[in-house]
Amino acid sequence: MKINKIFSLLFLFLLLVGCSDLDLNPLSEGSSENWYSNETEIEMSLNDLFRHDFWFQDYDDWTDDWESRGRSNQITGATINANWSTLRSIWRNHYKAISRSNVLLEKLKESGEFLSEKKIAFYEANAKFCRASRYAYLISHWGDVPYITADISIDEAFTLSRTDKNTILETIYEDYDYASTVLPVSYASGRKYATKGACHAMKARIALYMEDYTTARDEAKKCIDLGVYDLHPSFEELFLTSTKKSPEIIFSIPRSAELNEVFASGTACANYYTRNAGGYAARNPSWQLFSAFLCSDGLPIDESPLYNPREPFKNRDPRCTMTIVEFGTEFLGFIYEPHPDSLKVWSFDKNSYVTNQDTRSNGQYASYNGLVFRKGINKEWSDDKVADQDKIIIRYADILLMYAEAKIELNEIDESVLKAINQVRARAYNVDVSDVGAYPAVTTINQSELRKALRIERRMEFAPSPREGIRYMDIIRWKIAGKVLNQPTYGMLDVKELREKVVNKGLWFFPGIPEIDEYGVANFDPMFEAGLIKLLGVHAFDESKQYLWPIPASEVEINPNITQNPGY
Q1: Rg value, the chain, Cα
Q2: Burial level of 349, CB count in 10 A (0-12/13-18/19+)?
Q3: Pair 176, 207: CB distance under 8 Å
Q4: Residues 51, 25: one domain?
Q5: Of 3, 102, 138, 177, which sits most exposed with the smallest number of CB within 10 A?
Q6: Which runs of consecutive H residues, i.e. helices, occur in 258-350?
Q7: Do 552 and 516 reside in the same domain of the chain?
Q8: Distances in whole angstroms, Cα of residue 370 to Cα of each of 88, 353, 365
Q9: Confidence of residue 106 (pLDDT cuts 50, 70, 90)
Q10: Do 268 and 276 form a contact (C-beta atoms < 8 A)?
Q11: What is the CB-side half-sphere exposure of residue 97 using CA atoms within 13 A?
Q12: Cβ(168)–Cβ(145) under 8 Å?
């Protein structure tokens, strides 16, 4: 028992000091004694740094955009602790990637016999890009963390302490800067490694997260000025499996069903699509997210005369119906309709009416709030229960909005800020940014109003899809997680009451218009108090500690030099 405990506690440090002796590469049969002896082995080691496990993206269900039948998790239930298995896994994989980057960088110093200086620089740049990206994630979620850039002994490992996040930030910048001077703007063919644009983009992101708005502005501008990226013509098509190459994607990790590298499969995949299509409809857009989409006049639903709660999908920002399935429209081969009296729906595949499993009158476990995701959901999912869209790490829309946000926070408001935001918004309406009469262009130059507009735009643009994971760090860095997550979650009444209190009184779908506060939180409490909607659950967020994650308990136990974050 004691031996097992010691082994567990040593895990991080074994990653740091002996990773080359562990799983070097899943494709290799080489041993640690002779590995890195030729370019093939160097290339395989680099490829390993781009595996999916090393490029974790925050879960959308850690935010207020997601509803899973009222259930909470460690984040939204404020139960996160130092023994959370997901947290330990994220920590472990990040340090494994860092260690392998460090080992590769050291071995490259000895590779001059079989690699040119140009090739060495290329591999080195990619390794530093990967290392910088992993440290960026660590400091944005944990704050100060152990920092290491070399292969070290076990004795040295036990002396490690937490390094100030701002010190680490400077080394992250240095790695990205070096990589950006070496890496190309694009690749003609073959595997996609990091690029010059990816370096600028990822540096801009961590700078924004760390409130270094000057650097965020400058790096986003460098990425824009490369002139190689553009918004995908169709927002809706960007997230489909068929869209593997797009000028909007700055950096992504490929997925392939043929290579068994998928986003979701089997039960996991089925959670996203409708019950009519054979899915579970267990993971749904929240009513909070649904209410956040502006109307087509650019106003929120509680201010716009265009909003009608009886037809809540009408006159909304187009991304609303591109993200959430509009009632009465085709989806996955069926008309989607959660209305309690819609007992039959049209099947396009069978060319006939079939029993509607997406109404809770027939299906007990149909969507509890009536909403299901459209964004990124492909019809093939319901055919083979496999989803293999590429993992988008960062895309051009994010760069435009990061540039605008940095300029807003610096109070450097000019035409470029408005253009960046409006480019993203105009794309949603499928019009040119200059055609200001065809979409609700942002025109204010007031800093606080622009800040609010920018945050709304990010929420509409990065609403959950499989999976970008943007919203979580947005609400964390804006310090609004406590405001938006400490909320009840609501859904439809049970069928009998739903007919009596809502449908028969002409109040379907929303029996009212929620007020939306300065944080974008919709207040459904009056509807609940009137008995018109049902409480599904209550989410929580502990502002006293949750803006940082706890260091895994095993790391604190083994090394007294590693202190725990406050509150854990």
Answers
A1: 25
A2: exposed
A3: no
A4: yes
A5: 3
A6: 266-270, 287-292, 318-323
A7: no
A8: 35, 20, 11
A9: very high
A10: no
A11: 28
A12: yes
CATH code at 140? 1.25.40.390
What is the per-residue pLDDT across 499-552, written as a single tens digit (0 to 9) for each? 999 999 999 999 999 999 999 999 999 999 999 999 999 999 999 999 999 999
Residue with tokens 């392998």, as numbered in its chain? 100
161 is a domain residue: yes
Query: Three-state secondary structure along 25-42?
Result: CCCCCCCCCCCCCCHHHH
Please tell me the distance from the alpha carbon of residue 67 to that of residue 388, in angstroms, as a whole number: 23
Domain match, 95 and 34 both: yes
| CA gap 564, 82 in Å, rounded | 9
Token pair, residue 132, equals 């910088």
CA angle 299, 70, 343 (to 5 degrees): 80
* Both structure tokens of 523: 């207040």
The verdict on 503 and 553 lying in the same domain is no
Number of domains observed in the structure of the chain: 2
Domain that holds residue 79: 2-183+548-558
Count of residues making up the chain: 568
In 19-153, which residue ranges form alpha helices assigned H by DSSP? 39-48, 85-108, 117-142
113 and 168, same domain (yes or no): yes
Predicted TM-score of the model (pTM): 0.93
Same domain, 491 and 554: no
89 found inside a domain: yes
Statement to judge: residues 499 and 553 lie in one domain: no
Instruction: Determine, yes or no, domain membership for 28.
Output: yes
Q: Please report which residue ranges of 195-351 form alpha helices under DSSP H.
A: 196-209, 213-225, 235-238, 266-270, 287-292, 318-323
Q: Within 10 A of 352 (CB to CB), how many other CB atoms are there?
A: 9
